[in-house]
C-alpha cells in the first residue's frame, strides 16, 4: 500500500486525489466522513472524543512563469533545491517536466535558479507539481522521495484496516501541513478532544535510529507531550510488547499547534524514524513501520 | 478617496486617523458598524431582500501601513527607530517622515566619514537616525517620546496612468470596500477594515471570529517587480495586467472553488486579470482561512511597484479593474442563491 500512497498526487493545498484515495480505503470503517473548508478529511465514529491526526500532503512546486520551453517554479513546503536538480516533476494530469539548472555549482543553487524543461504551452502559472516518488523496496527497507511525508498516513490507514471498527474515534487527515500546519490549526482550533495522538516521521539523528521500532516523542520543536497521556501510552507499549523508544527531537511534528489550540489539548506524537529526510530517496525500515501500526492498532482497540 | 486615505497616518498599531475617515464615509451605508477592542472596523450590510438564503460574503482590507517607531532619543536630539512591518532599510535613506505632526528627515553619516568596511556592507536600520531639527535631546523630548510612531511624508501624485503614494498597500483595498458599501447587494455583506496586518495579521485573526462566511475575499496591494533587468520568473505581477488572483503564498492557499468563481466573474464581465506568479508574501487571508474551523478564502490584489516604500506606484486601470472585479463577484454571488 505504501507504494500506492507514494504515487498519489497531493502537494500541499492540492490534496484532492489523496482525499479520494483515503476515502476508498476507510469508508466502511466510520459513521461519517467529511471534508472541511480548508481540505482536511475528517472520519468520525461515535462521539469521537479521541483523535488521531496524520497529514495527507507532500511538498511540491508551483509554476510562476512558463515560456519558450522553460517553466520556472517556487517551492511548496520545504523543498531543497540541491536535491531537485535532474528530478522528474509530475503534474496532476500526468504532464511532466525535468528540473534543470544551468549553473556549475548546484549546492549553492536556489529554487528560483531552477526551471523545468517541459512543454510549456500546456503549463500555466499556478499549476502544482510533485517530484516523482520512485518508490522501491528491499526485504527490510522502503525508499522513496518524500516517503517521510507519507509514512504516518500509511501507518494510520493500515492500523485502521487491521483493527476492529472504532466506536469513539475521530481521525483527521490534515491538509497543508507542509505550509505551516494550516489544516491542523483550522481543525483543532474549532474542535475539542480529550486526547490527541499525532503520527508523523521523525528524522534520524539525535538518538533516533532506523531499526529500533517506532518512537514516542516527549518533546518536539514547539511542543511537549502530555505527561499522564504519555505514561498511559508507555504502559500500553510495554503491555503489548511493541518496540518503541522515547525521543526528544528538533523537528516540528506540529505538537505545539495541537496543544495550544482551542482550550488546549493533551497530545502525544508517535514517530516513525526516517533517514535521509528531505534528500534523495528517504528511507524507512519496514519493521519500524510495522511497530507503529501495532502501536496505533493497540491505541484504537483500547479506546 | 485614495488621496485622502493614503495621506492619512496609520502605522500598524495606530490606525485611528484612517479608521475615522472610513467610518465617516460608511456609517450611513450599512446595517451595523462597530469598532472592536483591537481597533478593527467591522461593517455589516444586510442583503437588500433580507433573504435567509442570501450568501454571506466577507471582504477584508487592512487599514494599517508600514512605518517607524521611536526607540531612543540621543543627547544630540536625534531619534533612533525601528521599522514597524517589513521595510528595506535601503529605501529609508533621505526620506521625509512625520512624527506627532512635525517633520523629520532620515539621515546617515556622510560617505567621507565612513570606513572602507562600512561602505562595502548594506545599510542597516541601526546606522540611520531621524533629524527633527531639535537643538539637543532635551528639546527633542518636548515633541517626541520613545514609542511614538513615524509615518512616511509622501504626497499623493498622479503621473501618466499611475498613482504614486505611500500606503497604497492597503488603502486601495479600503477604498474598494468603501465604494462597494455605497451599493445595495443581494448578499449579506461583511466588510472588515483590519488593523496590524503588517505586523502579523493580528487584527484579521480577531475580526473574522464568529462571522462564518460562505466565502472571504481579501483585497490587497501586492508586489510588482516588472522592472528592467528582472527575470520573467521573478516579476510576480505586471502593472497594467489587471488585478492579481493569488493561488498560494507564504500565509495561505486560496480555495480553488472560490478562485474559479472569481475567475468566472472576471471572464463574464470582461475584466482583465492575472495570477500572482510567486508564493512569497502573505496577507490577512492567512488568518482568515484557518479561522473558525476553516473559511474558503482568496485574495485579489492590485500590483504595486516599490511596495512598502514612501513611493509605491499603482496603475489606475488595475485599481478600477480590481473594483470592477469585486463588484462583478458580488453581483454573481447575489444571483446564486
Can you count the beta strands of chain B? 17
Distance between the termini of chain A: 26 Å
Q: Could you tell me the mean pLDDT of chain A?
A: 93
Rounded to the nearest angstrom, the radius of gyration of chain A is 19 Å
Number of strands of chain A: 17
Mean of the pLDDT scores of chain B?
94
Tell me the major beta sheet of chain B.
11 strands, mixed
Order of strands across the main sheet of chain A: 1-2-12-3-13-16-14-15
The share of residues in helices of chain A is 25-40%
Order of helices and strands of chain B: HHEEEEEEEHEHEEEHEHEEHEHEEH
Give structural notes.
The two termini of chain A are 26 Å apart. The model of chain A has no long low-confidence stretch (mean pLDDT 93). Chain A has 303 residues and is α+β, with helices and mostly antiparallel strands. Chain A has helices at residues 2-7, 16-26, 81-84, 148-162, 182-190, 227-240, 255-259, 286-302, and strands spanning 32-35, 41-45, 50-55, 60-67, 70-76, 88-91, 96-100, 115-118, 128-131, 136-137, 141-144, 169-174, 195-203, 214-219, 244-248, 266-274, 282-285. Chain A is globular and about 60 Å long. By secondary structure, chain B is α+β, with helices and mostly antiparallel strands. In chain B, helix 5 (168-181) crosses helix 9 (316-336) and helix 7 (256-268) packs across helix 9 (316-336). The longest helix of chain B has 21 residues, at 316-336. The radius of gyration of chain B is 21 Å and the shape is globular. The two termini of chain B are 33 Å apart. The model of chain B has no long low-confidence stretch (mean pLDDT 94). The interface between A and B is medium-sized, with 32 and 26 residues.
Amino acid at each position: 500500500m505504501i507504494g500506492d500512497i507514494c504515487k498519489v498526487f497531493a502537494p500541499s493545498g492540492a490534496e484532492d486525489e489523496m482525499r479520494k484515495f483515503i476515502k476508498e480505503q476507510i469508508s466502511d470503517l466510520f459513521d461519517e466522513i467529511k471534508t472541511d473548508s480548508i481540505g482536511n478529511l475528517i472520519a468520525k465514529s461515535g462521539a469521537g472524543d479521541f483523535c488521531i491526526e496524520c497529514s495527507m500532503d507532500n511538498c511540491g512546486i508551483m509554476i510562476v512563469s512558463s515560456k519558450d520551453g522553460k517553466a520556472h517554479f517556487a517551492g511548496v513546503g520545504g523543498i531543497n533545491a540541491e536535491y531537485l536538480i535532474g528530478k522528474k516533476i509530475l503534474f496532476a494530469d500526468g504532464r511532466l517536466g525535468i528540473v534543470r539548472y544551468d549553473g556549475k555549482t548546484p549546492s549553492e543553487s536556489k529554487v528560483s535558479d531552477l526551471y523545468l524543461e517541459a512543454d510549456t504551452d500546456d503549463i500555466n502559472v499556478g499549476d502544482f507539481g510533485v517530484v516523482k516518488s520512485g518508490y522501491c523496496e528491499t526485504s527490510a527497507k522502503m525508499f522513496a522521495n518524500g516517503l517521510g511525508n507519507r509514512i504516518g498516513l500509511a501507518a494510520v490507514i493500515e492500523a485502521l484496516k487491521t483493527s476492529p471498527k472504532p466506536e469513539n474515534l475521530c481521525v483527521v487527515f490534515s491538509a497543508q501541513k507542509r505550509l505551516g500546519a494550516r489544516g491542523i490549526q483550522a481543525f483543532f482550533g474549532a474542535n475539542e478532544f480529550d486526547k490527541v495522538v499525532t503520527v508523523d516521521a521523525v528524522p534520524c539523528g539525535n538518538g533516533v535510529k532506523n531499526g529500533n521500532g517506532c518512537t514516542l516523542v516527549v518533546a518536539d520543536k514547539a511542543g511537549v507531550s502530555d505527561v499522564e497521556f504519555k505514561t498511559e501510552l508507555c504502559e500500553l507499549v510495554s503491555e503489548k510488547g511493541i518496540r518503541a523508544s522515547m525521543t526528544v527531537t528538533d523537528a516540528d511534528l506540529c505538537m505545539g499547534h495541537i496543544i495550544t489550540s482551542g482550550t488546549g489539548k493533551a497530545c502525544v506524537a508517535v514517530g516513525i524514524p526516517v533517514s535521509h529526510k528531505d534528500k534523495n530517496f528517504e528511507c524507512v525500515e519496514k519493521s519500524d513501520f510495522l511497530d507503529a501500526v501495532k502501536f496505533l492498532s493497540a491505541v484504537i482497540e483500547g479506546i | 478617496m485614495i488621496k485622502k486615505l493614503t495621506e492619512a497616518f496609520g502605522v500598524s498599531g495606530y490606525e485611528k486617523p484612517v479608521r475615522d475617515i472610513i467610518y465617516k464615509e460608511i456609517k450611513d451605508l450599512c446595517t451595523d458598524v462597530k469598532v472592536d477592542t483591537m481597533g478593527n472596523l467591522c461593517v455589516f450590510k444586510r442583503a437588500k431582500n433580507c433573504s435567509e438564503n442570501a450568501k454571506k460574503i466577507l471582504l477584508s482590507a487592512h487599514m494599517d501601513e508600514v512605518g517607524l517607531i521611536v526607540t531612543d532619543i540621543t543627547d544630540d536630539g536625534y531619534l533612533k527607530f525601528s521599522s514597524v512591518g517589513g521595510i528595506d532599510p535601503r529605501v529609508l535613506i533621505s526620506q521625509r517622515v512625520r512624527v506627532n505632526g512635525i517633520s523629520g528627515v532620515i539621515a546617515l553619516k556622510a560617505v567621507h566619514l565612513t570606513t572602507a568596511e562600512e561602505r562595502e556592507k548594506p545599510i542597516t536600520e541601526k546606522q540611520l537616525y531621524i533629524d527633527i531639527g531639535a537643538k539637543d535631546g532635551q528639546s527633542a523630548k518636548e515633541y517626541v517620546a520613545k514609542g511614538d510612531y513615524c509615518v512616511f511624508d509622501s504626497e499623493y501624485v498622479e503621473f501618466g496612468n499611475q498613482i504614486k503614494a505611500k500606503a497604497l498597500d492597503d488603502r486601495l483595498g479600503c477604498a474598494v470596500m468603501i465604494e462597494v458599501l455605497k451599493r445595495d447587494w443581494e448578499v449579506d455583506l461583511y466588510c472588515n477594515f483590519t488593523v496590524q496586518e503588517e505586523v502579523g495579521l493580528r487584527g484579521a485573526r480577531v475580526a473574522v471570529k464568529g462571522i462564518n462566511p460562505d466565502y472571504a475575499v481579501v483585497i490587497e496591494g501586492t508586489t510588482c517587480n516588472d522592472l528592467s533587468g528582472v527575470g520573467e520568473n521573478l516579476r510576480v505581477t505586471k502593472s497594467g495586467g489587471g488585478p492579481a488572483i493569488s493561488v498560494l503564498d507564504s500565509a495561505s492557499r486560496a480555495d480553488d472553488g472560490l478562485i474559479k468563481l472569481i475567475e468566472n466573474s472576471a471572464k463574464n464581465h470582461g475584466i482583465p486579470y492575472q495570477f500572482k506568479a510567486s508564493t512569497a508574501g502573505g496577507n490577512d487571508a492567512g488568518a482568515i482561512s484557518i479561522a473558525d474551523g476553516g473559511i474558503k478564502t482568496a485574495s485579489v490584489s492590485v500590483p504595486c511597484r516599490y511596495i512598502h516604500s514612501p513611493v509605491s506606484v499603482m496603475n489606475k486601470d488595475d485599481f478600477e479593474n480590481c473594483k470592477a472585479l469585486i463588484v462583478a463577484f458580488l453581483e454573481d454571488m447575489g444571483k446564486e442563491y
